[in-house]
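Chapter summary example: a protein plus iron/sulfur cluster.
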Amino acid sequence: MRRVYAALFAAYGQQHWWPADSPFEVMVGAVLTQNTAWINVERALARLTESIALDPAEILALDPAVLAEVLRPVGYFNVKTRRLSVFCAYYLAAGGFAGLDARDTETLRRDLLAVQGIGPETADDMLLYAFERPIFVVDAYTRRLFARLGLIAGDEGYEQIRRALETALGPDVPLFKEYHALIVRHAKQACRTRPACPDCLLRENCPTAPVPSMTSSLVVSG
Ligand code: SF4
């Protein structure tokens, strides 16, 4: 796990995740980024902050139809309007960032998962990037890359993979933040649905990478 991290970091450098100015912005982004590209979240956040401050009370004060229209770039905007509103109401009732941050990690994770529309990946984005808790985010990219590298089977449950990664790496918030960002970068650049193995920096240690055939080496050397 650490060798993979070192190779990815050496190749791509620091990714500066999560791109946000406040913990609350991280949480809003985590809700909005479900099933959509980050660029669409950026568009929606820019539209939102054109008219109001990024503040839970101000978001709740918006007419839901107006909020849905503002969130249109993220797709499923009616669902996400409901989810964001539910989350903002929960956030305020819980005492805002300070109220949530006072909880131990296990309690906070359980409480976030109990909020309608917050699944494990969204909760863990919040825990790691907003609350700086040592929780490894397991997304589809993580599962695909580590399965192809032979580090996991790939069909394990979310919790099993998360705990295995956290145990292997030890609790390290800066490492977890950077590692997740690097996985996303590598999964988009090389380890895509159809992987670009010949150009991949991990190919020599990847059991999924095709072995260069004798014929092609002869052609290359000849
Ligand atoms: S060699 Fe191919 S399958 Fe392995 S990590 Fe790289 S792109 Fe993914």
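Key point: The chain has a mean pLDDT of 94.
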